Amino acid sequence: MKDLAGTEMTPTERKLLKAFDGLVKLLAEPDLAPCVVANLREAAAALQVAILDLGLRATRADELHL
Amino acid sequence: MSDSPYWNPKTETMPREGLRRLQGRKLKALVARAHDRSPFHRRLLDQAKVKPERIRSLDDLKRLPFTTREAWMECQGQVPMFGDMLAQPVDDAVRYHMTSGTTGRRPLRVLDSRFDWKWIAECWCYGFHAFGVRPRDRVFFAFSYATFIGFWGAHYACEKLGAMVLPSGNMTTPNRVRVIEELGATVVCATPTYALRMAQEARELGIDLPNGLVARLIVSGEPAGSIPATKKMIEAQWGAKVGDTAGMTELGTIMMFECSHQPGGAHIIEDHFVEEVIDPATGEEVGYGEQGERVVTSFGRGMIPVIRYRTRDLVVKVPASRCRCGRTFDLYEGGILGRVDDMLLVRGTNVYPRAVEAIVREYPAVDEFQLHLWTDEGIRDEIGVRYEVRAGHEAGCEQAVAALQQDLVRNHEGLNFHLSRVPTGTLPRFELKAKRVKDDRVVKGGA
Fold first, then answer.
1. A52 and B300: CB-CB below 8 Å?
2. ipTM of the complex
3. B339 - beta bridge partners?
4. Burial level of B23, CB count in 10 A (0-12/13-18/19+)?
5. Is B300 part of the contact surface with chain A (CB cutoff 8 Å)?
6. Burial of B417 (0-12, 13-18, 19+ CB in 10 A)
7. B302 contacts in A (CB within 8 Å)?
8. Is it the case that residue B101 has pLDDT exceeding 70?
9. What would the mean pLDDT of A5-18 be, rounded to a whole number?
10. B225-239 exposure pattern, b = at least 16 Cβ within 10 A, e = fewer
11. Are B108 and B99 in contact (CB under 8 A)?
12. B33 to chain A: which residues are within 8 Å by CB?
């Protein structure tokens, strides 16, 4: 898997993407308490910044309304 | 956390070819998203017959239409309150801000989401980290925390870095100076003008800033942060290093920062922005070393996509190799040099306020000053500098002022400058952007 600059992603970068995708999945769980939703969104927004920083993915998870 | 001198070592040291590929991929995603979600951008792109799927690399940037402040303002007039530029629902916003309105025009209203604020802080982190701010620092903000976006993002950046934030809100200047000393601030954030104002206050209060704990000042909001004479003056009065940054409300954050090598310019955060420099008259790109207008495209802000926005800022771009810090990000030599519309035309001579400041600040005897223009005998434009003399510089002041006048005349094609002394405390002081031009001419001659 390559990053936006065309370089092979490191294992850590792949883990970062996986962590973000995991948060997205968690946010889709039904009946999450408001405190959980709010903090998951905070975490997802922060991870999305790191993903943008490292140029791992250019598209956004707009459906999350981050 | 590693002790890297770079906040983001991967991109800050990325070879230019890789950086261009990265920018190209981000551009493609930005244009597709803007076309899909922002009616304003869809309209502009459709009018220019640009199909998002045909954007493939950074080379395609030039095919995109410019965005102007006028068009942005107009869309906010047509679709109150925030216009139809937004790419996300208003409900996604967590904060409202507006431009400072220093140009006298109607301010722009901006909204940011929770992601945007994290990204805004991130860009400031590039700058703070590069200038040597670390978790052990105590960072004082001489900032009023109101609707002007100013240092809001810097505040969050310091929290993200793990530094201790010392906010000052609506404190008076004497109180701010006392707090800086009492709480042991090691970094101070302010406009260049206000940094000088606080230094003056400290002297009056008997606080010895040069021998205090403040080691760094991070300035923003005015071109003066990169004027060598002004910077030297601030550094001498604080006994600290001054690092320049520049941003704008339209971006929400900074797009350039000065690193600890202080190369006489500021690095562009090129993994989050594409900065073009164009001839303001023709719109054609100019080369390295040539002065032009900066045009910015931002890959960060989600609520408000910014594509080829004409900033009216004057800059000179130079290659990254100009600095020895190892970053591959290009620089703006001398920071922001002024505004395209700042130029004053006085009897056929171009006068740039920044250039005048650069000369005036070479004279330590001058404390505060104001550029004054008026019409004499109903027909002739005149220009003068009103100045206050710094305490302790009375001796030799007359010679210094005579030399200053000669300097101003010599640098402005023989245009005569009238210098007039005013009592200390007469001229306005500024916390945010300084306004040192008073234009009382019957017909303004600005270009």
1. yes
2. 0.97
3. B313
4. buried
5. yes
6. buried
7. 60, 62, 66
8. no
9. 98
10. bbbebbbebbbebbe
11. yes
12. 59-60, 62
